[in-house]
């Protein structure tokens, strides 16, 4: 009865343009499994940060653990994008997520028996980061196989919606679970969540003729992708903006437990509530973009939302209490999701078909691979000058980056507007998007 009702709801939603990609059975299976798995991932992230803080009582160590865990993403994500073109994506993702299940199970057992240490946490974090470096580009490339190109943008927005809904549900469950049962239970819940995604992937049916792994010379493929991203104005700008936000903007997530405990005086439940607030705002932004993406100018949205996030971080550095911080987290989460989705969508829309996979691999490399530097700088600033200063620094630099981009684009637009016998060097997408900046 429940399963039939859920299918009925999904089919009903699929009639709306905002949920068009749900009309694909394979995508419904993929999205459902990923959602449950993401809930488990957020549960583990909350427990992981709280565990490190409990063992060390150090913001610097918290940032260091996150940095070391994310370092493999910086080193291997570009290679993972090339590997994704050479393997059966569905089977490869299933193998990687099975190994992630084992990582969560190991972490839970070690914590439950009191054997866990910081070096063990670091080893498991590095192992998980290595798996992630190959899983993320492969899973992103697999979305096209299950939904097709026509509904790809809608699928990206719904994926982000599921991610951010999980960001609301996961931390809430984690806060309650830590308070009622203990940290180890969170890791066991995450391990169980991988069963759902593996079942969903196993049930997906693809046309064998569509599963065609390709073999390409790695150096040539990477070189061509780099040349395009660095040579075109909008891709170069979006990658610069993403790198800045990854290092100085998104790192605020890592420092939230420090803010919750040391500045706001709330425990694990309060920390989970702040994370849920970020997720609530991000979910609202994702659903809004899914519904109105055709009416929005993605370039303007990317820049304005990045500026809004910078302002949100500045306000968060001044938040006097939990209620105020929670409201600011909702707004900041909204801006963060809008920045990521609009940047992702615009990159895919502007990229040539034969380069799209490598461009998105480059985007994942910057968005995820630069995170270690963000965690490290955030932890260092918080440890030396206080966590509020860490948020303020991130906000100021984010706003400066947006200001630099706007100034640069206005110069290009003004130069292109001067009377000349030819269109000039500015391409059509750059001129149209730049005019809206």
Question: Mind explaining what this structure looks like?
Answer:
Helix 12 packs antiparallel against helix 13 (322-350). The chain has 17 helices and no strands. The protein is an all-alpha fold. The longest helix is centred in the N-terminal third of the chain and has 32 residues, at 25-56. The protein has helices at 2-14, 25-56, 59-84, 89-112, 118-147, 152-180, 183-203, 218-231, 233-249, 252-263, 268-292, 298-316, 322-350, 356-369, 371-385, 387-417, 428-434. It has one domain (21-205, 213-434): Growth Hormone, Chain: A (Up-down Bundle), CATH 1.20.1250.20.
Topology diagram in text:
Elements: H1 2-14, H2 25-56, H3 59-84, H4 89-112, H5 118-147, H6 152-180, H7 183-203, H8 218-231, H9 233-249, H10 252-263, H11 268-292, H12 298-316, H13 322-350, H14 356-369, H15 371-385, H16 387-417, H17 428-434
Helix pairs in contact: 2-3, 2-5, 2-6, 2-7, 3-5, 3-14, 3-15, 4-5, 4-7, 5-14, 6-7, 6-11, 6-13, 8-9, 9-12, 9-13, 9-14, 9-15, 9-16, 10-11, 10-16, 11-13, 12-13, 12-16, 15-16
Keywords, separated by commas or semicolons:
disordered N terminus, mainly alpha, Growth Hormone, Chain: A, 437 residues, 0% strand
- Report the end-to-end length measured between terminal Cα atoms: 51 Å
Whole-number tally of structural domains:
1
What is CATH's topology name? Answer: Growth Hormone, Chain: A
Regarding quaternary structure, how should these chains be classified? single chain
CATH architecture: Up-down Bundle
Radius of gyration using CA atoms only: 21 Å
**Count of discrete alpha- or pi-helical segments spanning 4 or more residues:** 17
**Strand content of the residues, in percent?**
under 5%
Contiguous runs where pLDDT drops below 50 for at least 5 residues: 1-7, 420-437
The number of E-state strands comes to 0
Instruction: Let me know the largest β-sheet.
Output: none
Please state the overall shape, judged from the principal axes of the Cα atoms: globular
Mean of pLDDT: 79
CATH class placement: Mainly Alpha
Helix content: over 70%
- The structure class reads mainly alpha
Q: What is the string of SSEs from the N terminus onward? A: HHHHHHHHHHHHHHHHH
CATH homolog superfamily: MFS general substrate transporter like domains
């Amino acid at each position: 009865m429940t399963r039939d009702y859920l299918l009925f709801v999904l089919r009903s939603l699929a009639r709306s343009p905002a949920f068009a990609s749900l009309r694909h059975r394979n995508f419904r299976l993929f999205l459902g499994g990923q959602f449950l798995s993401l809930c488990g991932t957020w549960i583990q992230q909350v427990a992981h940060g709280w565990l490190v803080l409990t063992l060390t009582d150090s913001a610097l160590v918290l940032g260091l653990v996150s940095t070391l865990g994310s370092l493999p993403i910086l080193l291997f994500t570009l290679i993972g994008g090339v590997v994704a073109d050479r393997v059966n994506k569905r089977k490869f993702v299933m193998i990687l997520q099975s190994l992630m299940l084992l990582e969560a199970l190991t972490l839970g057992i070690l914590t439950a028996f009191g054997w866990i240490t910081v070096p063990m946490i670091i080893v498991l974090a590095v192992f998980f980061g290595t798996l992630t470096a190959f899983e993320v580009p492969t899973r992103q490339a697999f979305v096209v196989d299950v939904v097709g190109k026509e509904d790809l943008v809608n699928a990206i927005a719904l994926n982000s919606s599921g991610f951010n809904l999980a960001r609301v549900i996961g931390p809430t469950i984690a806060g309650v679970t830590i308070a009622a049962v203990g940290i180890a239970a969170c890791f066991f819940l995450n391990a169980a969540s991988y069963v759902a995604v593996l079942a969903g992937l196993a049930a997906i049916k693809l046309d064998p003729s569509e599963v065609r792994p390709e073999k390409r010379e790695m150096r040539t493929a990477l070189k061509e992708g780099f040349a395009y991203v660095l040579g075109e104005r909008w891709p170069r700008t979006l990658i610069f903006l993403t790198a800045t936000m990854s290092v100085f903007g998104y790192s605020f997530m890592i420092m939230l437990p420090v803010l919750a405990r040391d500045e706001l005086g709330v425990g694990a439940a309060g920390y989970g509530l702040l994370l849920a607030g970020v997720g609530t705002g991000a979910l609202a932004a994702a659903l809004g973009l899914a519904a109105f993406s055709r009416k929005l100018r993605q370039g303007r949205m990317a820049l304005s939302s990045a500026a809004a996030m910078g302002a949100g971080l500045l306000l968060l550095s001044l938040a006097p209490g939990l209620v105020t911080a929670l409201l600011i987290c909702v707004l900041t989460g909204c801006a963060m999701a809008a920045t990521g989705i609009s940047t992702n969508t615009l990159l895919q829309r502007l990229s040539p078909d034969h380069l799209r996979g490598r461009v998105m691999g480059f985007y994942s490399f910057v968005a995820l691979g630069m995170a270690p530097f963000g965690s490290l700088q955030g932890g260092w600033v918080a440890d030396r000058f206080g966590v509020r200063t860490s948020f303020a620094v991130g906000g100021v630099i984010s706003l400066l980056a947006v200001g630099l981009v706007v100034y640069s684009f206005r110069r290009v637009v003004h130069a292109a507007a001067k009377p000349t016998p030819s269109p000039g060097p500015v391409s059509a997408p750059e001129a149209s998007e730049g005019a809206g900046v």
